[in-house]
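Pasting as-is:
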Amino acid sequence: MRTGLFVPPLITDGVACTVCGSTQTTVISSKRAKQKYLRCLSCSHGYLVFSQMEVEQLGSIYHEGYHGFRVDGAFATFSTRFVQTQLTKVAPPPAKLLDFGCGNGQFLRTATSAGYLAVGVDISDAAVTHCRALGLEAHLITEFDPARHRETFDVVTLWDVLEHLPKPAEVLKSVATVLRRGGYLVAKSPGIGALSVKISAMIPSLAGAVVSAPGHNQFFTSRSLTRLLELHGFRHLTWLPPTPIRDVAKGGSLAKQTARRITRIIHAVSGDRSLIVMAQKE
């Protein structure tokens, strides 16, 4: 995994909260868990602790076959509706937009078609190559210097990005740098309740299905996401309805269908839901 201003050395000391920096944390994982699960007693945030080697290995999952790069009809529909009904009201085109973690370029295409001056950045060579092949402007994160783009963009979007970052606070700091004063940040992340994190921490074999660990290593609540944004100068938070914006897996073997039903029950009891927020830079 490359490092740079947008991708700092992603090492946590296993104590300080990755959102608010509080040392009032508690370990909730069993001894069988490969990674240590912690929960912050100050802001309610849950997160995993990684070694440097494990962080570098995380970057290897974002290749051509990464499931997040697949065509997603639900996200395409959501993107169009969001731009038309929400984004154009606060930042009409031709505003400058940065899609952080642009993936397969779906939102970039939607924003560009709507008249936005849209640029994408991603940690994945495969994602950037794919976006450029579609005629979109995209850059590797290591090629994109926030200092050179200070207060350049009117909008920054992070669609299902924050939950992948072992140091989300460091990335939010850099994102705030490139956003102009009064500009808007749009972020979407899974909202993971205490029960889902606890089950994943105690039964490691369920972690992938329940919280998508270790690819997802930050488990936000609305409280901890609010804290993260406010600590980095974002105000006037507007929460969009927690509508699913991704295609849902269907079919498969009876075992897979049963596992999905059990996972849905856990999510429902835990109160898990999508967190979609718009916030304005102070």
